[in-house]
Give the backbone structure.
Amino acid sequence: MGKFQSKVKRNSSKYRADSHVSESPPPPTSPQHSRAHNDAVTYVAALKADLCVTGGKDKAVVVSNWRTGTGLKRFVGHEREVTKVTCLFGTNRFFSASRDKTVLMWDLHGKLGPTQTFLGHQLIVTGLAVSPDSAQLFSGSRDNTFCKWDVESGRCLQKTAISRNLVTHMCWVPAESYIVQTSEDKVIRVWDARELRVAHSFPMKQYIQMHCDVSADGNYCLTCSNGFGGQGCEATLWDLRQTRDKVCEYRGHLQTVASCTFLPKTMCATPLIATSSHDCTVKVWDRDTGACLNSLFLDGAGPLVSLAVGDSSSILCASFNAGVYSLRVESSRGPFLQEVAKF
């Protein structure tokens, strides 16, 4: 609990994106590859240095080489659309959640069917987090429950429920035993994974919290909200070392912000975050000032639903209408977002 007891100086000012920020010019025609999914892509996660795993409305989980846009393996086992995928970067195992109320485990070099099934939720599973040692899996659902599973046996070790806690996303805090979770009840909860109890809740937001991410050093949490017409449609930075108000807000999207992520320090000397929205834009922000540094409109992509960091200069973006985009962050230009490929 040390991370929630220490005191740090915080900036309580609210920031808005600069109104004069320039949009990226239309990108040159990027290489077109076979679509990873034959329907909307619902989530993307980085698996290895050149591989990503995606889930889609077509009920499939697909591993692709995001550098070449080549689909490598297609895993089938869910009966309804996949809602989330998660993995530990650099490993061969990955997990998928679905509207069919199940969580499945897959092996990159194993059979095309699931290697483990986790049964116990009564409604759609909408959040997943795996422990750093790969021994335990945590899942959250619209049934208000939060579950801890033994990965090898598939057995539910512990289950708890909080009224109205319709889970939207979950992520592990690096080097800690905590999980950050967002919910439709607008509350951001920090769970103690050892006892499966809520260690802390941040002040309730005005809009549904859609997604969360935690910085590599484990100090900051980023969440984003739904909205319309510029109302809501924001991301919020929280300091996990203190328990009070938000640190910074990032406003400028016109529709629901569905995904947010911290970008690696190698991308730029300035700490950066990225967001993607149903308004078809990906934005890069100065983490500390809240200024929007660059915005890329992906014409024809439809709602942008998920972001993942590919490597030190690349972002992957999942969309409803156009598959997965590979974007390059040119740090020498301010930073500048450029579409490289889609698949």
In short: Residues 164-195+202-343 form a domain with the Methylamine Dehydrogenase; Chain H fold (CATH 2.130.10.10). The chain has two domains: 40-161, 164-195+202-343. Helices lie at 2-5. The mean pLDDT is 91.
